[in-house]
Write a structure and sequence with these properties.
Blueprint lengths: L3 E8 L3 E10 L2 E11 L6 H10 L1 H4 L7 E6 L3 E2 L2 E3 L6 E3 H8 L3 E6 L4 H4 L8 E5 L9 E6 L3 E9 L2 E7 L11 H14 L12 H15 L8 H11 L9 H10 L3 H25 L5 E4 L1 H5 L1 H4 L2 H8 L5 H4 L4 E4 L4 H12 L3
Parallel strand pairs: 1-4, 4-8, 10-13, 13-14
Antiparallel strand pairs: 1-2, 2-3, 5-6, 6-7, 9-14, 10-11, 11-12
Helix pairs in contact: 1-3, 6-7, 6-8, 6-9, 8-9, 9-12
Amino acid sequence: MSCTTLLAGDIGGTKTLLSLYRASADGLVLLASERYVSAEWPDLAPMVQRFLGGPAAECGAGVPDAACFAVAGPVQAGTARLTNLPWRLAESELAAATGIPRLELVNDFAVLIYGLPHLGPDQQAPLRAGTPVAGAPLLVLGAGTGLGVAYGLPTAAGLVSIASEGSHGEFAPRSQAEWQLKNWLQADLGLQRLSSERIVSGTGLGHVARWLLACRHPGGDHPLSETAHQWLHQDRDVQAQGPDLPAAVAAAAQAGDPLAAEALDLWLSAYGSVCGDLALAALTRGGIWLAGGTAAKLLAALGGGTFGAAFLAKGRMAAVLEPIPITAIIDPAIGSFSAACRARMLLG
């Protein structure tokens, strides 16, 4: 495999990252990478052709031996429709257009499972010590715009990624505060039900702060009040570019603002509880990894006592969760790296 080249794509509604890797017995080496504005292209195939004829060709590479494209949307029977792009992708059509002999589409969160066994020290940070069980299932959670969930099942042929919509299960309040938050947010957003993702996500941290601001500062006299007002409008219009309320809350909490600190603490507790529920659902004794936009930004908070205590607060099942290690993924290019790992698996 000394001359094997792999094409990895991380395809999103806003941007697409294409990367070419060389695979060897020592691991993966990044040869070239290019970022594209997704909406400027009618389809993925011409973008890939441009990349292979440009940055990849400058490395002296020919047609890659295999490719994996992580796409922001569900994948079924080798086809995918992107959530925020009018693209319909098919593995057979992409293979014919690019000449790549082995090619696969994978959901952009489920693909992270394939990168886990190959993470280096600079790509991850331990949050909670434990002892993983060899051959046991794995869990990846990712709190970003939403909450991504995927399980990994070890097999003789390598890990198998199992996509999940576990984040859309019902949010289960565990305290009076969470009950009040649930009812307020349902009424505020006009929802019939509230999923865990509405709270446990980067967006959810913003909603928790909005609830506290509405309760404690209805006149809009808190330093975060105007940011929250502008952010809510942006949240309902994904094309708008405005303030980042979750980031502002995290920064204010670190600076000592009591309301922001309370919002972050409530959010961390809910995140830890949902993580424990999802770990019990598949007995993921092989380990848990936290990805998504918040993992690297909130390392200290996630490694603190609030998240861990809520994770273990499962009554008699706490003993099952106690030995499971939890690790944060801090590599911003983990999507393309994991896609490259999957592409290498396609070669057998």
